[in-house]
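Work Package 3 (structural annotation) set out to generate three-dimensional models for the target panel prioritized at the project kickoff. During this period the team completed the workflow that converts sequence records into discrete structure tokens, so that structures can be stored uniformly alongside our sequence database. As a representative example, we reproduce one entry of 143 residues exactly as it appears in the project archive.
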Amino acid sequence: MTPRADPLTVEVVDLIGTVVSRYYEEYEHAAAEHSLTGAQARVLSLLCVEPLPMRKVAQRLKCEPSNITGIVDRLESRGLVERRPDPADRRVKLAAPTDEGARTADRLRSSLGFAREPLGQLTVAERTLLKELLQRMLGIAPE
């Protein structure tokens, strides 16, 4: 028999779930305003961090590589992403944002008010603590 979580833990988990749900809802809406699906926006945003082979994009987004191929195809047809040889291994193709793709990703990020506005109500110390707690929960070493 599994021990029951204490009420505070249950409440925190519920709040995290609500934040995640609201974030995805706004993300989908912001993506649509840029004529993108949520999945296309996530792929484009990820590629703006660094160009990646599609297999790694699929791993990071936890989905099938064939789905990523279709998403990259559609982004490429819109001039937002391009495929280019990997300088480390020319047999591998990287998906990378075009200049227009990077600008679109920037506009998308700028239009996400849900997270930014409530976070702006926290002090710098509170945001720093929240960041450190989230990193600890995810097993990410603090910067």
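The longest helix spans residues 7-33.
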